[in-house]
Amino acid sequence: MTKRKFIDGLSSKWMVVCLCFFLLLPLAIGAGLVFKSMGLFDGRSIGALIFSSDWSPSEGKFGFWPFILSSLWVTVVALSISIPFCLLASIYLTQFAPRWFLNFMRPVIDILAGIPSVVYGVWGVLVIVPLVSDKIAPFFGTESLGYSILAGALVLAVMSIPYILNMLLEVFRQIPIELGEASLSLGSTKWEMIKHIFLRKGATGIISAFGLGFSKALGETIAVMMVIGNVVQIPSSVFDAGYPLPALVANNYGEMMSIPSYDSALMFGSLLLFVIIITINVLFRYLIYKSEAL
Amino acid sequence: MTLRRKYEEKFFRVLSAIFTLVIVFVLAHIIWSIVEKGFSSLSWDIISKEPQGGFYFGKEGGILNAIAGSFYLAICATILAFLVSLPVALFMNTYLIKYGRTLTGIRFFLDVLWGIPSIVYGAFGFTIMIYFGLKSSLGFGILTVGAMISPIMIRAMDEVLKTTPIGLQEASYALGSTKTETAYKVLFRQALPGFATAILLAFGRGIGDAASVLFTAGYTDYIPRNFSDPTATLPLAIYFQLGSPIPEVQNRAYAAAIILTFTVLVISVSARLLSRNKHKSS
Which residue among A36, A183, A192, B100 is least enclosed by CB atoms within 10 Å? Predict the structure, then answer.
């Protein structure tokens, strides 16, 4: 009996230790990144770091504005491509599609979600980059190398579709069916029911799904890095090359030891990413949890 | 008026169907274009040989080092993540099941943790590595990837455990078993088929991720012999080879992409099959 009790006590302590590890992990990540990026704050203000666009590490000048802007551009463009797809596809799958088609789509979404990001990058280099330089840019009467914000955004849009779509399917599934039936019985068409009832009822969930998709797109690294061109500049159109924050961090890890303060700068880049994404996540997850509690 | 409503309905029905089909088409196109491009370079040599001298200039060899490295890394990281995730998931569903608020808080927290991008895990792993004065190695890669995939695994296990009936636990307590015994002997066994899905899900994520291992696992032409050796991984092998100006080497990147894609494909399809079987039986 005592032995069983002893094992029980030991195992429950181990469970608590494991749980505490995960509760402390984000704190540790945040603290570690702050600690490492401290070196950057000697004589530089945080505002100057973020809003300056002067990036010359060898002279000790670190302005993150081009990277922040590139990240925002590519994320916003990617989302504005994937929003209509996700919204309409989720409406079709939950409202119009026959049962077998939904069952057919589930593995499709799974596979899309499972494809590693480097493979999306390869596809981007193979297909999207030539598409942008040969077809889309001439269509709009400009020239582009193809390695551009638009190429990054297209790849990101495809990558974020399964993630957002899954959440939207869940949102539509949770709306009580009686609401729709009441609307139909009053003589509305199916589309009117969706437009007036479902989109309004599910608004919180839908906005959160896109918010979380935004944070996902913002943190995506390898695939974007492969197609976006990686040129330090403030992009003036979607056909320009960009250089988002994750790519900056990933691209320069080899050199970060050779230039003073460079490692601090890269860690500050990760810290920026971490803070932005945690904020977005907490905000929209909170909305989701709130709306589920109703 | 009625006609307009009817046409609006028709219009959106067709439009949404088209958009859905476009998604299917894009998936097919991704797989097709990679297979088409890489199939000619796919050979037994690529899978079975380590890179020889001058491999990255188009000479002899294969990417066995990356394939082996990826599997070592992903399998070990999955085992590690399982060892930490299982107690957490069980703890949440035995000890904390009475405290709904705390439980919601923890789930919320894990979901947020899930959202942290892998590059941040990579950078964090790197700072720790530097702090202890260590070099990038298989062991460190495993730790980083393990930390990254654990929240996914815990939440997936948690979803499975949530569906086990509470009466099962009560019956176990009534017979005089301790919480630990209930957790590991009753709950664990009940949820085992569902756990397989959780494990496969995490494994798939681990093997495909490049950003977190970029700093922490390093890169090498050899198969790692122990945990302190650096290791190559498939995603990085693809990335580096694609960056080469030599077409020969680029083609190998496409071949490697086929290998990686189909590995992940098999994993995610079997995860789905497993979870479907579970739904049928319950």
Answer: B100
